[in-house]
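pipeline: protein-struct stage 2 | run 1193 | Metal-dependent hydrolase, endonuclease/exonuclease/phosphatase family
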Amino acid sequence: MNFTADPSAGLTLEPADLNPWPLTICTYNIHGAVGTDGRFAPRRIADVLLEIRADIVALQEVPLGGGGMANVLDLLAEATGFHAVEGPTRAKDGRRYGNAVLSRYPIMATRTVDLSFGSHEPRGALDADVDCHGHPLRVIATHLGLRFAERRDQIRRLLQVFDTDRMPVILLGDVNEWFVWGRSLKWLVSHFEAVPAPRTFPSRWPIFALDRIWISPRRRLVHVEAHSTPLSRVASDHLPLIAHIDG
């Protein structure tokens, strides 16, 4: 479809000519929409997202409905008006739970990556191709395990699925790496180059940089910051992490 910019001049713009840059990207572990006060309050998560006004959001620990449980992703999609895709990682008693992506722009394709390790809690990644006005962007949203060996195995598997030749790639999520010099972080830095890592956990008094955003090529990353407001400090036990990227 063409878009007419100036009918008198006969000038048309293809979708790819509409510049989406800069983009605001966010990753947010919403803790099942249960805040630091113990209340289940999905509306607070939605309000935090409205504060941030990101273009693309990766979510972890999202209730996805079933078994009488509310589908929090549906509530957030309705509140933001964004496209939404889910990547369930576990189901118990019919209740589904896992990762998700919300996007201002259409999501053209999705894939899931099983990152389960032994008998530990099932983990995974949601791999989505986003069409930003004709500029393709690959977004890989994940939530890694709690143990060293588990994370090392998961990072190794994630790195095997990357294809950075066709489009820019963003890897983001809760990597659960407590130690700055952990081996899994070293592997990611060697692949993506070093990026800022603001502290995001626990949300009231952040000590650990558990949530991360990497992008390839690295030059597109402009700025990274934690979103700390009175609302975000109570809505979840993690603060949202925000990255600004440019074309």
